[in-house]
Amino acid sequence: MADSLTAELAVSLAWVFRDQLDLSTVADAAALSHERSLADGTGADQADKIWHATRTLDGSAHDDLDLTALTRTLFGSSLSISLAKVKAILLINTSTTAGEKLRVGGAASAAFAAPFNGVSTSVVEVGPDSVLLLANQKDGWTVTGGSADVLRVANPNGTSVTYKIAILGTSA
Fold first, then answer.
1. What is the Cα–Cα distance from 145 to 111, expressed in whole angstroms?
2. Do 91 and 153 meet the contact criterion of CB atoms below 8 Å apart?
3. Is the pTM of this model over 0.85?
4. Which residue segments constitute the domains of the chain, with CATH numbers given?
5. Phi, psi of 43 (to 5 degrees)
6. How far apart are CA 172 and CA 168, in angstroms?
7. Confidence at 1, pLDDT banded by 50, 70, 90
């Protein structure tokens, strides 16, 4: 029996901004949202592989996630997932303590830098109780085994930080 995957990407921000004037209140109420479905496959708007985990990093530690050898346990068996392209990365910093940020990107070697405009030293900071969603559902970012396949998640803090991560991609 073949496996299959369907995925939904969704993000939104809604707001009401009010300005109290002398005789009235002016309000700006709106929302910005993006929703896409990805079917099973390896083409545009498709994905056939997903890896997800909850991880805890000690203070000043880092995870170097090899996108060509992501391991996980499913139904009691160990699986290794190899991605050829990444379609989306969702990372949630679960810390609720001010200052406990995480840094994504900037691996010391074989850095997966495609989402960072190809700059291997670039990083994105994800603050406490915050999310990072990177998506490229049409083209995906190419993973090159041995030279551009390591996604680093670093903890620059002195205390441990837990995060949740899901990486959606394709096998070809």
1. 10
2. yes
3. yes
4. 43-170 (2.60.120.770)
5. -95, -165
6. 13
7. low
